């Protein structure tokens, strides 16, 4: 049984990217000081440019979790669709695409506001041997994700946290029944993600959800 994440090319790229991301610390603290509180859509672009050099990736164990969830969910499917909010340099995207590769195909649509990051992510995906499975869309998720090639099987929310709920509401009509919605950083940014968590933890809104104690907090929801 294949396990692309163990192959030399993706492993080499991921090792390099995670090592580079280890240097995020001081720049990340400065960014958080600058943009604490509510981030509306217009501020999102300013904050993204300020973070143009900052990786802010999912933790390695969260990457593994994304691989496992995607692989389990899309097994036996040849037209699976994974959508990601917040590409950065492509670390999470590599995990998502590796799972689709091992299941025989599918598509990751991912989006990034910062053009230089999106280009770097494309190069990293190519180096990992996964570029053919991924559509990296440059621009604001509220525009770039309006047009999707099918219904969503797995949605990863990993852009600015205050935008999780409005973006989910935009994409809700495109979620397949049984789709998984994974939200990163929900413990670290509990205040910013409260509206989102209230929404997906109320079954009246059509979700069942649970919190997972990975890194800065993962919330996992299934669309009923
Ligand atoms: C936490 S990082 C993503 C990390 C990435 N998922 C990984 O694991 O490597 C968040 C990214 O979301 C991007 N972003 C924020 N708001 C966005 C928006 N409205 N549309 C597209 N990208 C956005 C930022 O520029 C930033 O690079």
Task: Write up what this structure looks like.
There is one protein chain. The chain contains nine helices and seven strands. The protein has a seven-stranded mixed beta sheet with strand order 3-2-1-4-5-7-6, with helices on both faces. It binds S-adenosylmethionine. S-adenosylmethionine (SAM) binds next to α3, α5 and β2.
Describe the structure using short key phrases.
single chain, 224 residues, alpha/beta, Rossmann fold, seven-stranded mixed beta sheet, 7 strands, 41% helix, binds S-adenosylmethionine
Short description:
The chain is an alpha/beta fold. Helix content is 41%, strand content 20%. The protein has a seven-stranded mixed beta sheet with strand order 3-2-1-4-5-7-6, with helices on both faces.
Please describe the topology of this protein.
Blueprint: H1 8-21, H2 25-34, H3 41-50, H4 60-73, E1 81-85, H5 91-102, E2 107-112, H6 115-127, E3 134-138, H7 141-144, E4 152-157, H8 164-171, E5 175-184, H9 194-200, E6 207-212, E7 218-223
Parallel strand pairs: 1-2, 1-4, 2-3, 4-5
Antiparallel strand pairs: 5-7, 6-7
Helix pairs in contact: 4-5, 8-9
The structure holds S-adenosylmethionine.
What value does the average pLDDT take? 95
Largest sheet: 7 strands, mixed
What general outline do the C-alpha atoms trace?
A: globular
CATH architecture designation: 3-Layer(aba) Sandwich
CATH topology group: Rossmann fold
Q: How many structural domains are formed by the residues?
A: 1
